[in-house]
Design goal:
homodimer; NADH Oxidase; four-stranded antiparallel beta sheet; 7 helices; 5 strands
């Protein structure tokens, strides 16, 4: 078994992957092949999970009625968010925050809050590590998608209980996020929220403390 | 601006990175250079965050007394976990679940639960997306570390309130995880919990539903 050598050229390419991963809301409608989806899921399966519990549950949403129901939930919650904006209301109104009407692949992601797998290891004092494991699987899928030229958008402006009901999954499952996937209309290294003037990145040094 | 082409050889190398990323508990004690740490943090800063809020707060823990205090919390909680094991108690007792006594770099990660940055976008119905953003920054750091030959271990067998107190950070900050970093004693593509017979990975197909 040969340990791979991740050399500086790979490190640079990996950095480019991080830099060009975007939250995509503008999708082309051409499909993603099932063989590519299989690859993306195989990559996501390599994500870390607490106690090797692999608590992620991926619900592929193909039913147009369920997609429409999720979009209705989004529209209602986003209208509410808009109403609460105050002085930024006009700027908020211009933002496109989802691509549910067009994305060819859509996935609702849940975490099992009490999986047998893993035998409880590592989550006794921090049960939220189960959801965190699902988040890392999403993030792995996201990076793998970008490495295949595919964009992903994470929709969080949703009522988690209602999405769970729309998906008809076990009541105890914890909704983590709704993902839209498809080929992006354009690629850009700058986040759309930054291009639209909503917010900008800050130096990482501001986020690091010493103790 | 040239859009990078992530070709099949890169996709394969990225897959190898995912495959060889491990949760490390056995560290060598040689230091990680500050220039490498700066690179790892720069990569982590590229992680997605809800509303571009970048709510992650990284506390580098250098003080031996604080490290010892975290280890004490771990030892107490792990003793409690051991006591609750039932028939797997002997197997649990053999597992090494942290490297706090040896890892040259240690980081306590928090999420700000109400950052000004991002102006609240995307988190009204799901405030947990702030912690999820910090989780994706941790996961980015983890992958970047592995790309530099460095191992990371995420310790979650801790009381989150006590860790926050040890770190003397704002009371409202949400503890996400305690990270140990250093060069690993060995590299392996198989998770340590699988090598030790605690748990094994399952086919991804078992985690995917259709709706």
């Amino acid at each position: 078994m040969i340990v791979p050598d991740f050399d500086p050229p790979f490190q640079d390419n990996f950095r480019a992957l991080l830099r060009w991963r975007r939250d995509i809301r503008h999708f082309r409608t051409d499909p993603i092949s099932e063989s590519v989806m299989t690859q993306l899921f195989a990559d996501a399966a390599m994500a870390p999970s607490v106690g090797l519990s692999e608590p992620w549950r991926f619900v592929r949403v193909d039913d147009p009625a369920r997609r429409a129901a999720v979009r209705e939930i989004f529209l209602r919650e986003n209208t509410q968010a808009l109403a609460e904006q105050g002085e930024r209301v006009a700027q908020y109104a211009k933002l496109k925050l989802e691509g549910i009407d067009r994305a060819p692949v859509q996935i609702a992601v849940f975490a099992d809050p009490d999986p047998d797998q893993g035998h409880g290891l590592g989550r006794r004092t921090m049960p939220e590590t189960l959801a965190y494991s699902a988040v890392m699987a999403i993030h792995t899928l996201w990076l793998s998608a970008r490495a295949h030229g595919i964009g992903l958008g994470w929709v969080s402006i949703l009522d988690p209980v209602e999405v769970r009901q729309v998906m008809d999954v076990p009541e105890e499952w914890n909704f983590v996020g709704y993902l839209c996937l498809g080929y992006p209309v354009k690629d850009d290294p700058v986040p759309e929220l930054e291009r639209e003037g909503w917010e900008h990145r800050r130096p990482m040094a501001e986020k690091i403390l010493r103790r």
